[in-house]
Design brief:
Blueprint lengths: L2 H23 L3 H8 L21 E4 L2 E3 L2 H10 L7 E5 L5 H9 L4 E6 L2 H13 L6 E5 L12 E6 L8 H4 L2 E12 L4 E8 L4 E9 L16 H4 L2
Helix pairs in contact: 2-3, 2-4
Bound molecules: S-adenosyl-L-homocysteine.
Length: 231
């Protein structure tokens, strides 16, 4: 029995589970279909390929992880994407979430930023190889969170945990734009959906989650080196 067969079975299992959870959890059928078109096995390290369609996060190197499929589905659904939307992602990582976004906006654009150069390069190459190159731009993270020079965005997704709602990201959202991000401690966060309104913004939470920290000005500092962590 080859991996191909097992992967196909696991894939069917995963997507029927997501469809079962759809009503209860607010998952969008269009997002489930978009995820079915993206080969997640290409975005995980070769040694984890057999786990690509398990509903779990997986390490992708440099202390980072590719998110659990359920969380990708929940966050993407909450963005309420239209096919012409201009979308910003912070935290490219493997590029999997980026590909799902690109599938959702066939007439739009996705800009994604990443601070680990090795992840940026492999995601950029893989996304181009899979045919997403035209719609997707992978950029190195700058001094300011997000991509102010390309604002405003119809939707922003942050795939790393923030300590608070970063004001600089809210400012990059169009009026009527949606942002989904984890907010909380370094170890556990509340998945949060923010809509920018004419007067300010409205907030709704979607449940608990666990993401790697968002690093940078207005977010977390990089882990202190070991000697500084001693009491
Ligand atoms: N969406 C990714 C998940 C990646 S994990 C996927 O589908 O695989 C979160 C990523 O956020 C990590 O790769 C981390 O390096 C990156 N990151 C953390 N802080 C960042 C920042 N300020 N700007 C851009 N990327 C950041």
């Amino acid at each position: 029995m080859g991996y191909g067969y097992n992967l196909e079975e696991a894939k069917e299992r995963l997507f029927s589970a997501l469809r079962r959870e759809r009503k209860a959890e607010g998952l969008d059928e269009r997002v489930i279909r978009a995820m079915e078109r993206v080969p997640r096995e290409r975005f995980v390290p070769p040694a984890s390929r057999h786990l690509a369609y398990e509903d779990i996060p997986l390490p992708i190197g440099w202390g980072q992880t590719i998110s659990q499929p359920f969380i990708v589905c929940l966050m993407t659904s909450a963005l309420d994407l239209q096919e012409t939307d201009k979308v910003l992602e912070i935290g490219t990582g493997s590029g999997y979430q980026t590909a799902v976004l690109a599938e959702m906006v066939p007439k739009g654009k996705v800009i994604t930023t990443e601070r680990v150069p090795q992840l940026l390069q492999s995601a950029r190459a893989l996304l181009a190889e899979l045919g997403y190159g035209e719609r997707v731009e992978v950029r190195p993270a700058g001094e300011v969170l997000g991509c102010p020079e390309e604002a405003p965005f119809n939707a922003i997704i942050v795939t790393a945990g923030a300590p608070t709602l970063p004001r600089v990201l809210l400012e990059q959202l169009a009026v009527g734009g949606r942002m989904v991000l984890p907010i909380g401690s370094r170890y556990e966060q509340e998945l949060t959906r923010v809509v920018r309104t004419r007067e300010g913004y409205s907030v709704r939470t979607l449940g608990l989650c666990r993401f790697v920290p968002l690093i940078g000005k207005g977010a977390w500092e990089e882990e202190a080196p070991p000697e500084e962590q001693k009491p």
